[in-house]
What does this fold into?
Amino acid sequence: MRTSFYFPKKSSRFELKDQKLTFEELRLLTEDASLSDIKYLDLSRTGLDDQGAAILANCRYLTNIETLLLDNNNLGDEGVFLISHSPCLQSLVSLKLSGNEIGPVGSKALAIAPSMTSIKTLDLSHNRIESFGAKAIGQSDKLVNLESLDLTDTGIGDDGLKSFAESFIGGKLDSFYLGGNNFTHEGIRIFSEVPNFSSITSLNLEDNHLDDQGIELLSESPNFSNLEELRLRRNELTADSAIALANSTSMVNLKKLTIENNDIRADGIKEFIKTDNVKNIEYLDVSENQLGPEGVKAIASSSRFSNLKQLILSNNGVLDAGAQAIASSKILNKLEVLHLDCNNWIEASGAKALSQSKTLSNLKELTLALNLIGDEGADYLANSKNLSNLSYLNVVGNRLSALGEAALFSSVELKGLKNLEYF
It folds into this structure.
């Protein structure tokens, strides 16, 4: 058992994450006056339980703490009550409680705690707060200054989303994370009608069951005109969702869009690029959407994608034709990140096209893992005069021999390469 803790000089941060603390070690920590200089304290994955929370809550040296990370511990409702009602933690601005054992009662404790009025960031992801907990958070008159709220995988369901939306009285929410809650379009219907969410710029609805009807409701709502980032991975979407997003009169400022693992296909992409709604997009993830070469060609040839900096096309059956379309594009010259990994069946000729592309001269990250480029393709990449800005290259699972690996490892042309993954 340790008998003391080292606090870095001239630093307001102290991190003990991943270090299991005994009861006595935690007590020893909270008796150290050096904590009074700390504003950022990370005790994630330290085994903290409700008993430990009681010690932490009564530490008189924590009055300057602004950010407290308690992720992935064993905190229950009692522990959350003690933390949120602590007179020693009145300066908290950010509280992260992901992956604990917090239920509806713990959520209610947070919602009524007087010290929560200064909280701007609250993370309750991967707890089971359920519908009651969501309603308590929503109607809290203490959490009115929230700017970022993470309720990912909290079991709130459609009823919880409706309750939260109907009772929410805050007006400053900027980032809202709602993934993995089994929402359907029924929950989205109420969520889309409430004007209290008009301040949101980042919305995460991944891993739900929204389907096309849910996206149509979101797209038709006038309440998301400030939205810049939308994440819709794995939501049972088809080309109709792409059409809805393209025709939205409010979602015209999107910069980041993730629709990974749906069923958009080439037809959906072609519809998506027909309006100016996509013109500001800098990050686009359309992985696992069965785009094929035709869908990739539509992206590569659309002038509305001229601001793209990151393009994720994993697992789309891109083939050499798709890779060649990207390489010959006159539009994608701002690309810095390109992912063409996983079952895209790109062979040496596709790698050759990428290596000879002047359009991709600003590329910093290229992922080609699990394709078929072989030693020939590796040699094209190694001798590319256009990919000198690459700092990361992944060619794992491409049937490279020692010769292909050596060509990349010893490449003179890839002078900016800092991270090469090939096995």
Summary: Residues 153 and 254 are 25 Å apart (CA to CA). The first helix runs from residue 23 to 30.
